[in-house]
Description:
Layout: H1 20-26, E1 36-43, E2 49-51, E3 59-62, H2 63-76, E4 80-85, H3 105-116, E5 121-123, E6 140-141, E7 144-145, H4 148-164, E8 168-169, H5 178-188, E9 195-202, H6 209-214, H7 236-247, E10 252-256, H8 262-272, E11 276-280, H9 282-293, H10 299-312, E12 317-320, H11 323-330
Parallel strand pairs: 1-3, 1-4, 1-12, 4-5, 8-9, 9-10, 10-11, 11-12
Antiparallel strand pairs: 2-3, 6-7
Helix pairs in contact: 2-3, 4-5, 7-8
The structure holds ligand PBG.
Amino acid sequence: MNPVQAPYPATRLRRTRVTPAVRALVRENALEVGDLIWPVFVRSGEGIEEPVPSMPGVMRRSVDKIVDAAAEADALGIGAMCIFPYTGIEERTEDCAGAWAPDNHANRAISAIKDRFPHIAVMSDVALDTYNINGHDGFVEDGIIVNDRTVEALVKMSLSQAVAGVDIIGPSDMMDGRIAAIRGALEAQGHSDVMILSYAAKYASAFYGPFRDAVGASGALTGDKKTYQMDPANSDEALRLVARDLSEGADMVMVKPGQPYLDICRRVKDAFGAPTFAYQVSGEYAMVKAAAQNGWIDEERVMMESLMAFKRAGCDGILTYFAPAAARLLQG
Ligand code: PBG
């Protein structure tokens, strides 16, 4: 009898799972601190660190406290931070002029981090929602979110961030044509090294709820964002958006939300091979926190498993509120 024709399966996949050392040998993906981008919320004032109720463990910080957060990131080996401004209703206007004010608190936070920690890559958010009286990412005229006038404002906003010293511009607005317009303006103004991470496949998602509390947009938002953010039912459209944004000059692309859209991450990575990121958004974070607070899941293990899932799906990196906690674990 041929010895390889044993009565049992020749391939026993359990063999390579038998010990931690063997599992480490055959492990296909790894999560590293360098994969993490930490989103932080900046607000006006000084010496302020106020908790965001729907996002346990997440703070809104004044600029000086953002610098403390950058020191924490630096100590943990986190190499990238993303700045989101919180604006009270009294700071919001119809013309959204705060969005490109050179000294708005987002721009001051960008400069403050770059002054102290020049090696940290600082990413911005480009969209009007945090400055808009009605909470939309674009200008509203007669109830319609207008595209081209919004793009002109997004260009001004991006240039103000570039002047503040941002490394990576993050347009999260979903207007058409904004990547080409921003890229062109950056080149023309001598900011050719500033990168663009386009929120290319951004869905109209209920998972953003806690974020809108964090940035003060919940009370402000009128209606929904379905005329510019994607329909959760669509997948081919995500590839068209990514192709379009890469052709307009995006250096990196984002899929958002993350975990419910891992299929999109994989399709994007396979189709383009471009640097691909996922945003593990506020609602994803809040769900893990809430379940853990009830003692229903193991927070650390669920956190690490969810982050590894992004790597397995083809993502190069993850924007996540868990960044410091995950970095702490990864550092042992
Ligand atoms: C808005 C923006 C949103 C998020 C990031 N940028 C919310 C929205 O589109 O309404 C959500 C992030 C999160 O939920 O963590 N430009």
